[in-house]
Fold each of these.
Amino acid sequence: MMQCLSASPRANLIVKPRLLRHLSLILLFLLLVLGCGYAGYHISDRNGIRALAENGERQLELNARAVESEITKYTYLPSLLELEGNVSRLALSPTAYRRHHVNVYLQGLNERAGSLAIYVLDPDGRVIATSNWDKADSYLGEDLSFRAYYQEAIKGRPGRLYGLGSTTGEPGYYLAHGLRDGDRIIGVAVVKVRLDTLEERWQRALLDAYVSDENGVIILASDPMVRLKTVRPLDDATKERLARSLQYHWAALEELQLFNRSLMDDGIERVSFATGGVPTDYLLQTRRLEHTPWHLTLLSPLQEQRSAAMSHAMLAAVVTALLAFLLIAWNERRKVIATRLAAREALQAANDELERKITERTADLQASNERLQAEVRERKQAETTLRQAQDELVQAGKLAVIGQMSTSIAHELNQPLAALRTLSGNAVRFLQRGALDVASSNLQNIGELVDRMGKITASLRAFARRTGDNGEASLLKAVDAATMLLQPRLQRTSMTIHRDFAEARLAIEQIRLEQILVNLISNALDAMREQVDRQLWLSGSADANGYQLEVRDNGPGIAPETRVHLFEPFFTTKPGEQGLGLGLTLSASLAAAAGGSLTVRHPDEGGTAFILSLPYPPEPNT
């Protein structure tokens, strides 16, 4: 009995360290699981926010383009009224007959354009004609001289304003243009358009977005509750100025309450916004809209991203726990196996050491032999790789040229095909009428166009066989061929072509020179399609280095911000699908392949001038 009592404290001394060790392992295990879960949440949250921000940037760019397109597609409409003679006559000398005639005209124009209202103001800012003249809330006779768009337009500047109508309180975007009679402004034309289709589009797409104007007032929003709130505090002077202008009617212009704002990377903010009385966290991204002082803001909710991060954290914790259990089991198994193998390994140690030394000596000899063989193989492989690389470079060069020519051929064949269609149809009608001479001439032209198309496809094979351009072309024939291909368009548009050049032989294939001229003349036709007077000048000059042909039009010219992109592939200013943006790029590459260049200048008197510079053919050897 005394022996048992004396043994008990010793057993306790043995158990306590073991128990402490087990508790320490359990505590370390829990800390490891929690740490991995926290790390998983942090990494998932950071990556999720980055992905959400990238998706937000794409959504922001897409919707910004949509807003910019919506607010700019009506910019031409106010200036269009300047072309209507009745509007100018009404502004100069208003009569009841003229007012009624212009009212009816504006009413029809408003219905066709899909705008909210179109009206004309006299120089004092009073409405003298309007599209809603027959409505109870007509603007007729209303004094709008206090409106900012009128004050800008009467000074000769474009008037742009988003606001609520002073009569109906209906929101809209106002575009104003000063009507001129010579050098003086005789009135102002105003078009009011709706932009609420953008809000409907955002609501259907479940986007949280809004647009704020130059005053910081939200004018468009997917959530109607935030419309006409401000994104920043307004001082009393600004509120008084906006109240006098009635731009937002009688709105209170309260500040939009965003809580817990914190700036993240790249100007992105994390904010809390109360939706339905419940605060929700969002990722706030903003960008400025082009051509306006407005800003588009996108709010991306973080709730789903945080739920996903929490799921990833739990998954990381579970995986860590599982791996820890597997590691413990493997460690225990390893200890058992290590104990069993310890004796066997001790007995075989001496034999293994001897075999190891023999193996090392043999391996040294084999390694030396293998290194020599590897060097021989590497040199052979290097030679083979070099030859393959050279062959691939040559083939890549050919394919690049063939691809470029294929694009230009496809672009060029459209003109001969259109001419073939017209000539063949005319030939059938002339044969039916018995006009054999005219039909024969059309058939001859068809044959020439077929030969021309054959030359075009033959140039593709020629490009596949050589890298240079050693052809020779006649400038006069090229101009005649280009104008012949474009004759239907020239007749429709009534463009006058002024020729001021002499015949010259140039170092370029005839087909390629014609293609360049067709592209330049077609671009001039597209640029002048909206004007009545269309003039095109073809002017030539020669020097010791070659011949320069200038193709200049009297169109509206090219905007400064787009000039640097003129020769970039797929860049075009033509609306819709009227152009692929390859004409100038291909023309410049064809000129460069012939040793010349294609440049552009912007004359002070207006229009655009493209300068084609080409060398002369080499002198024949004597």
Note: The chain is about 55% helix and 20% strand.
Amino acid sequence: MKKYTFDRSRRGTLGVGIVVACLLTGASIKAQNKDTIATQKLDEVTVKAVRMPRQVMAPVPVQVLSGDKIEKLGLQNMADAVRRFSGTTVRDYGGIGGLKTVSVRSLGAHHTGIAYDHVAVSNCQAGQIDIGRFSLDNVAMLSLAVGQEDNLLQSARLYASGAVLSIITELPSVGLKRSYGLKGQLRTGSFGQVNPYLKWTQKVGARTYCALDADVMRADGTYPFTLVNGKRVTTEKRYNSDIVAWHSEANVYHTFKDQATLNVKAYYFNSERGLPGSVIYYVEGNDERLRDENFFVQSYYEKRLSDKVQMQAQLKYNYSWNRYEKKDINGNADGKQIDVNRQQEYYGSSTVLYKPFGWLTCSLAQDVAVNTLTNNYTGDTNNANIAPVRLTSYTAFNVKLAWNRLSLIGGAINTFTHDKKGRKAPSIDRNQLTPSLSLAYKPFENHDLNLRLLYKKNYRLPSFNDLYYLQIGNTNLKPERATEYNLGVGWSRYFGGVVDYLMVNVDAFHNKVTDKIVVIPSTYVSKMSNYGHVDIDGIDLSAGLNLNLSKRVKVLLSGGYTYQRAVDLTNEKAKNYKDQIPYTPEHTGNGSLGLDTPYGHLTYSLVGVGKRYTLPQNIEANLVEGYVEQNLSYTKGFRWKRVDWSVQLECINLMDTQYDVIRFYPMPGRSFRATLKFTI
């Protein structure tokens, strides 16, 4: 059986890059939702800051990472940050350029909604989002909510998700004596990584701010490892994990005289990367290349119509283009297989919230989306150039009842889709109503102890790839259905002494998935099919502790653990009956220890993942061993020449641990990074 370990003699590579940015658009300063935005005045600057959700008192499991904690933990990218949340499984194909998707509590990436500044991110072609394309440099808060959130003023599309990963970017910050702000950084490190970032904020009126930011990521991604094949040991290198990516974003934030707010955002992302293939003995499948281009412009408007009525409205246009290239195994004349896809979406959402009494709140949300996909596929009369179009309507109605220390939220979401494969093909209509119910109860008035209960139905539509992709698409697919149950308790307390703060959350969950959409291999042509009944049982634990060793020295501890048993109950006679489903570990955990001193902030963190299986049958031949990755970071801030500076030094994978997230896709060993930041 093949094994490999990493060469410990590697060296970090340093470099220099230049940021180029040029976009403009619009946005908002204060948000009317008091649970979202807070305004605060300091001595030297005016800051618009994101207020963190109440993790303990929320009616559903909520986990939060602030931008400050993300920085102190030395997290490399969005996937590293999401791994800190209990109950998440991140699929990572290795290297800086590898694709990264997230599944929550084994429901699958298709059931995880992604919100970027309150507006949903979509991909109707693949049905799942590559979170690796989102930068952490401009993130003020990252949160993960399972099931039904208690914020009734959100879009119906987010209501329809089994879990929502919310990314909130930084709001404008300018000096009191000047109308602009400037923030920049240069990050460089191992494997040829160079990542400059720059953000400019400008006050252009009494109630209007503009912000423009951009970053460039460049890395060759080549790292060594040792391949062990029986008695033979060779030193190899991991190739085709390079990436050159550019991201730019522009915002305009405006507050109207009636305190209504508007945020308009333009976003552009462009990347050219290698897709590192599997390493099987001495053969690496490293000939795949992917180019991505994504542009969207979105607006978010919020207004209080009266003391009892609020509303929000969203508009979005999204354009995605990708080009996949690899050697053609069928031996075409040009020797390459090239797939080109263009996807467009037109999306609108509106929500009205009505609060007739202090104990009763209602909301009605309506979303409409039109998706189109064109491609260059040829040679298959059933699937070539089909240019499918999908019209989707989401309607969500929710009611919140609050009596003293009891809160009850119930609702239902109706999802309607109209699919058209081509001009002559018949249309396919689908309609589904999914209910949800959550309850939160605070037993003691003077103690932050919260009991919560959740029930939610979810509905996953087949993606365009599931239905139409080349020869494996299946237009007869049924939608995938999932049911979530959660019972949890949260407790927190401020002590104010040596033990300053303590927080604990415990949640037990049970999920059921039916008509699961998977690829079923055959002797001739594999096909997408509805296959499977999966039951998922588990427990999520998370805790945080702050200690004051002195007035200037603090210790910050946090950690999380998840146990989940996700078993296949499809066929009692099958060899994999009641076996753990592929790539789902029973045990995962994370922890961090931070030391805050006048001399800087030192953080030690780790992520642990238990054993997994690559195929449905849990046998030794399909086993992927577990691993623990440890990181160390040091951050020091100082002021020089009237500019705030900070330096961060990081060691990633401190113990040079060899591991795979996906089998035969070795992850990098020990690496180093250095970051220099400034703020004016």
Note: The first strand starts at residue 2 and ends at 5.
